[in-house]
Design a protein that fits this description.
The protein is mainly beta. It folds into two domains: about 60 residues, no CATH class; about 210 residues, Jelly Rolls. The chain is about 0% helix and about 45% strand. The chain contains no helices and 19 strands. The strands form three sheets. Strands 4, 7, 8, 10, 15, 16, 17 and 19 form an eight-stranded antiparallel sheet that branches. Strands 5-6-9-18-11-12-13-14 form an eight-stranded antiparallel sheet, with no helix packed on it. Strands 1-2-3 form a three-stranded antiparallel sheet, with no helix packed on it. A hairpin with a 2-residue loop joins β16 and β17. The protein is globular, with a radius of gyration of 20 Å.
């Protein structure tokens, strides 16, 4: 990409005369430049990754810097049956006799945790990060991605359960302020819903994607800096863009969470989780 100069975090120039190689990554310190990038448009704090053919704007490569904050979770180490603490994520059987366990890795899914309801009609099992008020919207762009797999048996009139995946602050219901994907068989014909909630007032959007059993999904939520628009993506495709009932500012904080909540029947159902990626680009550098 002609005209760009890249430096590492200590100020050393990164590109040699021979040019970049696949996998190279460089931080963007400013987006004020006459050249342009193709979608996605980068922000200060983002990085460019060379994929072997072109530069691609990506999320920050540094975990902590002045303009952004990023973390990821791979769920790689051994956990107990009812609670496990990973690098940033706590996985816990909250109530009703649920269970958590490591299951064998698969191709492209190196660490998988299964969150089970066991033989309970009231079990709640979740993976959550930080406090219930740990994410503030409206002070910078926020992005989160979950890699999850659905249960072999979908929710139905005999054994009903709900998935809530995104930002939610309670394990047994929709919190007052939330931005999430939601699934249950008897709402929206069993299709993924894109949900925003501000002070209990909800906008629920039909994504058009019917949830399939035993299927891996990549669920992405992208909230703009001012918290006036949310983009929901499933497997890289935009399925909803929402501009109403978005929580923003003090008092409307939330938490990164993926949870399965059982409400009917005693047959075991589950939610598998492989990884979470979170990024916040600060509106004002710290």
């Amino acid at each position: 990409m002609r005209g760009w100069t890249f430096y590492d975090s200590s100020g050393r120039r990164k590109l040699s005369a021979a040019g970049p190689v696949g996998g190279a990554e460089h931080n963007i310190l400013s987006t004020t430049h006459p050249d342009t990038l193709t979608t996605p448009v980068p922000e200060a704090g983002d990085s460019l990754s060379f994929d072997g053919a072109d530069w691609v704007a990506d999320e920050p490569s540094l975990v902590v810097n002045r303009t952004a904050y990023r973390w990821g979770e791979e769920f790689l180490h051994k956990i107990a049956a009812t609670e496990g603490n990973f690098a940033r994520t706590r996985v816990i059987a909250v109530a009703g006799g649920g269970n958590i366990s490591n299951i064998p890795p698969e191709a492209s899914h190196p660490g998988i945790v299964r969150m089970e309801t066991n033989a309970s009609s009231t079990a709640r099992t979740m993976a959550a990060v930080g406090d219930v008020n740990s994410v503030l919207f409206g002070s910078g762009r926020v992005r989160v991605t979950f890699w999850i797999r659905t249960s072999t048996n979908l929710s139905d009139g005999t054994d009903r359960y709900t998935y809530r995946i995104g930002f939610n602050a309670t394990s047994d219901m929709d919190s007052a302020d939330a931005i999430m994907f939601r699934y249950v068989d008897n709402v929206n014909s069993g299709k993924w819903q894109a949900v925003t909630r501000n002070d209990t007032v909800e906008t629920s959007t039909d994504t058009g994607i019917t949830v399939a059993a035993n299927t891996w999904y990549r669920l992405e939520i992208d909230i703009n800096s001012a918290a006036t628009s949310v983009i929901f993506k499933i497997d890289g495709t935009t399925v909803a863009t929402v501009a109403t009932n978005i929580p923003s500012g003090a008092g409307d904080e939330s938490q990164v969470m993926a949870v399965i909540t059982k409400s009917l029947g005693t047959a075991m159902r589950y939610l598998d989780i492989d990884a979470i990626k979170f990024t916040m680009n600060f509106a004002t550098a710290r």
